[in-house]
């Protein structure tokens, strides 16, 4: 089967993001093994396989990495908007009764299917990975995920690992002028869940903040919003860079002390490994803000 999009071509900085996910997934699977139900939600699954542009080496994407966690999650929910890519994902996953693959926009699918009866168990210890290419994740979706889980004994929420695309998307849309300004603002409204972002931007402009200061402001803003949903621990890591410039942050939200400890050690470990066959692979650079 070929559609020209699979395996997904990636650069080494994307491979690095997958490493963070991988390290956390494995530690999470171990820590959550006593839970009867364990769920993994991948809202931007792609086809499960990637190819490193530089070397042509194929590596697993997020969905297949999650499937390799030991012990396995008891349920997997994979969402992909592109029909061809979703077909490849089905082929790559094969027969697996614990996997549900949904095709469509993740905001819609999460609301109408994943969080409904027959979807993701409310009692499962659960982790959602939101890995968009831009501002696709609506704030209302994040809110809905945060409210889903019921664990009366422990009051835990679904853990979230979110690619926060400040530099690669939000910042650019904030700079749009002229005829496209209104549609840019509407997209930012959906992403941030209202117009408050515009006040943040105004304050930043009034104070004549540098690029770096504005980045910190908008990362802090999203972190505060997640805390406002009741997450006790919210960690922001980044920005992660391509060869030349910052692209995104990884933001983790949990109300579980163990989850927080694991993710902090993953983020602080500097365990950016060499990617097999990818000469010149560089670990993440932290910015001087
Ligand atoms: C950055 S890639 C995800 C990569 C994947 N997590 C991995 O590690 O292999 C984004 C994927 O999300 C899909 N996508 C884009 N917008 C989407 C949406 N609104 N809902 C669901 N999937 C979407 C794209 O077709 C693409 O395959």
Q: Care to describe what's here?
A:
The structure is a single chain. With 289 residues, the chain is of the alpha/beta class. The protein is 41% helix and 19% strand. It contains ten helices and ten strands. Helix 1 (12-31) runs antiparallel to helix 10 (257-268). Residues 282-289 have low confidence and may be disordered. S-adenosylmethionine binds next to strand 5.
Shape, per Cα inertia axes:
globular
Helix content: 40-55%
> Could you describe the largest sheet, including whether it forms a barrel?
7 strands, mixed
CATH class of the domain at 8-166 and 230-268: Alpha Beta
The CATH superfamily name of the domain at 8-166 and 230-268 is Vaccinia Virus protein VP39
Hetero compounds: S-adenosylmethionine
Classify the fold: give the CATH topology of the domain at 8-166 and 230-268: Rossmann fold
Radius of gyration: 19 Å
What's the rounded overall pLDDT mean? 89
Identify the strand order in the major beta sheet.
6-5-2-7-8-10-9
Cα separation of the termini: 46 Å
Proportion of residues in extended strands: 15-25%
List its salient traits.
289 residues; alpha/beta; Rossmann fold; seven-stranded mixed sheet; three-stranded mixed sheet; 10 helices; 10 strands; globular; disordered C terminus; binds S-adenosylmethionine
């Amino acid at each position: 089967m070929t559609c020209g999009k699979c395996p997904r071509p990636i650069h080494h900085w994307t491979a690095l993001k997958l490493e963070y996910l991988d390290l956390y997934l494995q530690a999470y699977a171990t820590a959550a093994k006593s839970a009867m139900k364990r769920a993994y939600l991948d809202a931007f699954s792609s086809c499960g396989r990637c190819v490193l542009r530089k070397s042509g080496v194929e590596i697993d994407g997020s969905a297949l990495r999650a499937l390799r966690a030991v012990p396995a999650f008891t349920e997997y929910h994979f969402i992909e908007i592109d029909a061809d890519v979703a077909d490849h994902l089905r082929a790559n996953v094969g027969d697996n009764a614990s996997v549900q693959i949904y095709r469509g926009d993740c905001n819609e699918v999460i609301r109408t299917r994943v969080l409904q009866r027959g979807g993701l168990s409310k009692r499962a210890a659960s982790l959602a990975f939101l890995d968009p290419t831009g501002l696709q994740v609506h704030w209302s979706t994040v809110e809905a995920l945060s409210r889903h889980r019921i664990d009366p004994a422990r009051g835990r929420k679904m853990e979230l690992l979110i690619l926060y695309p400040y530099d690669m998307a939000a910042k650019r849309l904030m700079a749009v002028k002229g005829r496209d300004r209104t549609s840019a603002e509407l997209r930012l409204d959906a992403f941030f869940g209202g117009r408050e972002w515009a006040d943040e931007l105004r304050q930043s402009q009034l104070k004549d903040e540098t690029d770096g200061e504005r980045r910190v402001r908008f990362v802090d803003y999203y972190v505060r919003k997640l805390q406002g949903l009741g997450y006790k621990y919210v960690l922001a890591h980044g920005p992660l860079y391509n060869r030349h410039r910052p692209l995104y942050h990884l933001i983790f939200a949990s109300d579980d002390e163990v989850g927080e400890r694991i993710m902090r050690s993953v983020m602080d470990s500097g365990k950016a490994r060499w990617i097999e066959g990818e000469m010149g692979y560089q670990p993440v650079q932290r910015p001087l803000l």
